[in-house]
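Let's see one such:

===
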Amino acid sequence: MSSIVDRKKLASSRVLVVGDAMLDRYWFGAVERISPEAPVPVVRVNREEERLGGAANVALNVKTLSAQATLLTVVGNDEPARKLRALLEQQGVTTLLGEDPQLYTIVKLRVIGRSQQLIRIDFENQPDHEVLAGMLSDFERVLPEQGAVLFSDYGKGGLEHIPRMIELARAAKKPVLIDPKGHDYSRYAGATVVTPNRAELAQVIGPWSSEAQLHERAQNLRRELKLDALLLTRSEEGMSLFDGAGHVQVPAQAREVFDVTGAGDTVIATLAAMLAAGLSLREAMPIANRAGGIVVGKFGTAGVTYEELFG
């Protein structure tokens, strides 16, 4: 694929990522026996890794592409928050981290044995309303300098004020992209584009029995929510974009699927970076599709570089 985005222009583009950030922890080990206490494998941990997850991984994906990323989120006053901050600073992501002393910074701990995930353990609770109100103030303050706004919704409570944030961003003529969660999309009304996968969209419009039925329901939802577009990610079937001009589909480009973790993050981060650089949704869509095809060939949450995408 030839580049249609100048790297210098992309490097000066700014994306504000707002949402639920988390720390992904991996414990790798050998499995040589079954526990005498219960019928479960015993994992002797010999290696640990920590990676950015959730909205933090989205911001990292933006930065990995060479664009500028700012992350607005809420964290606790704990060890995972300090680690999250350090990883973000190490990667060059600008941070606006609201601190809630009562909050457990979200951690997803995955135990890996024999190259297989054996269990995932989640640590989380709901953020305080006053801290979330502070996020809204920070959002208004940094919005003018952004080229696009990306909401990464993991349903953890960090986007309490998303309707107002969307309203402010659209009034400022900023593209608004949303990675959705749950079955109520009314809170996303007025956004530029929402990017559900098949399972997420089926929660909202119901299972479809034909392409014609999908197209009709997707367009109805788009018009109901006053979205510019709805982008459906379809795994091995590629992507479908529904907008005011109709429908366009691009086929999947993954050569080998190794791990789908974080693929949606890569797709929407690439879309946001391209929109911030001045591309239209229809121009950005095949680039984001290619990015998704590259990242599923990597293990764990990972990003795609400018060279991988356009080289």
In short: The mean pLDDT is 92.
